[in-house]
């Protein structure tokens, strides 16, 4: 199959999907089955931020072309929707839906986009400096 018209790199996309599904499965483990050691203050919010940051970064990395503002905005919106759906479905497995968890999810995705954009900018600057110096 010719993949020149596809938006994603297949292997990276498979990894992004697998990590997303694993994260969603983890957030739907009933509360009584969760280790008490994980129930420490605001650690939960940090976990949400990191998990959604990693997922957001993997989705951006799976794109065939470097993402611009539009692609990053789509990733943020899609991640916000997934995070909201994640929170809204948790009560079905005896967990609590929390707007602050959703805010942490969103913060992770936005941070991932920012980091991705910063890395892209630094790479471009390095390539430009190399081209000018030759």
Write the layout of secondary structure elements.
Layout (H helix, E strand, L loop, with lengths): L9 H17 L16 H19 L7 H21 L9 H35 L1
In a nutshell, what does this entry contain?
Helices cover 69% and strands 0% of the residues.
Over all CA atoms, what is the radius of gyration? 18 Å
Low-confidence stretches: none
What characterizes the major β-sheet?
none
The rough form would be described as elongated
Total count of strands = 0
Return the string of H and E elements. Answer: HHHH
Mean pLDDT: 89
Percent range of helical residues: 55-70%
The domain count comes to 1
Structural class: mainly alpha
Provide a count of the helices.
4
Give the amount of beta strand, in percent: under 5%
